[in-house]
Amino acid sequence: MNILLNERKLEVDEKATLLGVKNAIRPEADVIIYNGAAVTADVPLNEGDSVNLIQRGEVPPAEELEALMVSRHTPGVHDKIKNATVGIAGLGGLGSAIAVALARIGVGKLILVDFDVVEPSNLNRQQYFIDQLGRTKTEALEENLKRINPYVSYETHCVKVVPANIPELFGSVDVMVEAFDRADQKAMLMQHFKSAPLVAASGMAGFGPGDTIGVRKMGDRIYIVGDRETGAAPGCGLMAPRVGICAHMQANTVLRILLGEE
């Protein structure tokens, strides 16, 4: 029968077991991932099982690294998303965190668009560093994402999104993400982008309960993430915890759409 060992097909005996394969192939491995879960007990293997063997402290060769990076994925997920393209409009507290999440799960291509630069007040919730102050967000975020996952393709545009350039920027995406700060920009994108599912956000300011942030579907292709009430205002700022909840719910909604779950 055939299994996947570090994402490569391997023929094993019908009576093969997990620890038997580990001891035969890589006895020094101290992390065993079996169908997406870290395990220690021996189990009989079945046709199509996924096994990843990792040695802590070892930097694997380039041809194995990508497979090991996605070893904790639910089996079959990476094959479905590695050829997908996702667009992100706005690379602030929402967009930069969404991009990090999607890069970590290995979405094939990210199109990242923002015209702004990194400034000090961004650092309370956005995925940048002090030594990147003054740099464009597109350049800084691409640099950070390549350190996280060099196997994703990154396309960046340091421009302001307006109705006229939406088709050129995002015409090829499988899913679109709205991650703007301003309500008028959000409305503009929702009005003019019509070619794919759109995951937008509304209401994540302050430090209210995280469980008030949810996902609501509007029509057949628009998803709104947030509490739809709590916008930034004097006395109600934007901070990493609640913005991060919203951003990761947007990223998870993107993943569910790509997997056909939405």
Automatic annotation (TrEMBL):
<feature type="domain" description="ThiS-like ubiquitin">
    <location>
        <begin position="1"/>
        <end position="57"/>
    </location>
</feature>
<dbReference type="Pfam" id="PF00899">
    <property type="entry name" value="ThiF"/>
</dbReference>
<dbReference type="InterPro" id="IPR000594">
    <property type="entry name" value="ThiF_NAD_FAD-bd"/>
</dbReference>
<dbReference type="InterPro" id="IPR012729">
    <property type="entry name" value="ThiF_fam2"/>
</dbReference>
<dbReference type="InterPro" id="IPR032726">
    <property type="entry name" value="ThiS-like_dom"/>
</dbReference>
<keyword id="KW-0808">Transferase</keyword>
<keyword id="KW-0548">Nucleotidyltransferase</keyword>
<dbReference type="InterPro" id="IPR035985">
    <property type="entry name" value="Ubiquitin-activating_enz"/>
</dbReference>
<protein>
    <submittedName>
        <fullName>Sulfur carrier protein ThiS adenylyltransferase ThiF</fullName>
    </submittedName>
</protein>
<feature type="domain" description="THIF-type NAD/FAD binding fold">
    <location>
        <begin position="76"/>
        <end position="261"/>
    </location>
</feature>
<dbReference type="Pfam" id="PF14453">
    <property type="entry name" value="ThiS-like"/>
</dbReference>
<dbReference type="GO" id="GO:0016779">
    <property type="term" value="F:nucleotidyltransferase activity"/>
</dbReference>
<dbReference type="InterPro" id="IPR045886">
    <property type="entry name" value="ThiF/MoeB/HesA"/>
</dbReference>
